[in-house]
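Hmm, what's this shape?
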Amino acid sequence: MSKLFFTCCIFISFSAMAQVDSSTNKLMNELDNKAAKPQGKTPVKVFLAQRLINANTVETLQKGHFEFKVVHNFGDASGRNGGIRSAFGLDGSVDIKIAFLYGITKNLNVIVSRNKGDGQVFTLWELGFKYKLLEQRENDPSHPVSLALFANGVSSSQRSSTDSTRENYYRKTSDRQSQTLQLMIARKFGKILSLQLNPTYVHTNYVIKNDVPNIFAMGAAIRVPIYKSFVFIADYFHPFRPKSTIDSFKLKGINFYDVLGVGLELVTPGHIFHVNFTNTTNILENRFIPRTTTSWKKGQYRWGFTVTRDFVIRRNKNKK
């Protein structure tokens, strides 16, 4: 799967470089707000959105800006549960996220969201923040990359199961909770290619027998303009699990898979719209990193989309 991901990335990168003309460059420069500024002082906007498909990006909202976001994953498009009978998955939804983001400062954002969730753990509430540590700047060797830190706490409000072999068996309030810590390291190469790494740590307070509470995963993301306001996006996560845990779940008929999402970013005035395919059912990192049991090879991939709308709640009086 990882070979397929990077092969697609390389192919799309060279294809895009061959197709992007001067008008496309002009449009993307306008979208990135790249007004003429002194060399070495211009911040580089590596991505346009706060999130691609499954991966957060290094970007943060400006101070006083408010963002409303809806993320939706449908059912299986193919395989045993997909096909024409389910309108290729459009008849059902496996996870829905409604999120609100606010820029406290230009580098610090707070995030609140409600998530439907999928599997044994659902009705999830998220409270988190993102902080930009470093911003890439043009012609400035001291700022070659952008760095951001994301952290959240998630809690389930569903009723507890009475079966201790299930993930939603909550003996106490803390059993309902999980946490994610993610570092984002990104760089934009020229005016075409944006790449990012997402080392991620997930801790789940309560896990079932033979599972592990702490999982580290390495993520990667790519963004490449294709034609005018159409942009190719993709991201990938590989969780690192102990082999003993993998073997234990295989005996139960459960297999874990890497998470791969591919899609298009459509840019319109005031809105950024993502339409994509991904094999994970869950949207939150707290769930899709430790609990992706659906495979591209088995047709267990699904349509998904993300819609964002940015509002200015409080203007910066010092900004002209």
Notes: The domain at 2-312 is CATH 2.40.160.40 (Porin).
